[in-house]
Design goal:
With about 130 residues, the chain is mainly β. It has no helices and eleven strands. It has strands at about 5, 10-15, 20-25, 35-40, 45-50, 60, 70-75, 80-85, 90-100, 115, 120-125. β7 (about 70-75) and β8 (about 80-85) form a beta hairpin.
Length: about 130
């Protein structure tokens, strides 16, 4: 069972930036499609971004396009989410998710498509 651990959350003012990390406990990280989701209090889990095994394909939810960037370093077993121009509506617990191992280079936008989940890291954006 792959363990995923998020870090990098915190409190930031609107317009600020944060960089989240998700580190996986597997030597086959390069065979996992990865994603970021978020969940605000009283709301359903929401897709944020996804990245293919190699990092060659990415996708974002419309509300974060142009502000967030997903990336990965397979040598470090780590995925990142650079978040710029943060807004109060970005406040949520951010969770990383993994699907693998796989030989496909697909990306996945639905939570049900992922097998492994981290515990989440809180991001709070003040106005």
């Amino acid at each position: 069972q792959v363990q995923l651990v998020e870090s990098g959350g915190g409190l930031v003012q609107a317009g600020g930036s944060l960089k989240l990390s998700c580190t996986a406990s597997t030597r086959t990280f390069s065979m996992y499609a990865m994603g970021w989701f978020r969940q605000a209090p009283g709301k359903e889990r929401e897709f944020v971004a996804t990245i293919s095994r190699s990092g060659g394909s990415t996708s974002y939810t419309e509300s974060v396009k142009g502000r967030f960037t997903i990336s990965r370093d397979n040598a470090k077993n780590t995925m990142y989410l650079q978040m710029n121009s943060l807004k109060p509506e970005d406040t949520a617990v951010y969770l990383c998710a993994g699907r693998g191992p796989t030989t496909y280079s697909n990306i996945y936008v639905r939570a049900s498509e992922y097998y492994n989940w981290g515990q989440g890291t809180q991001v709070t954006v003040s106005s």
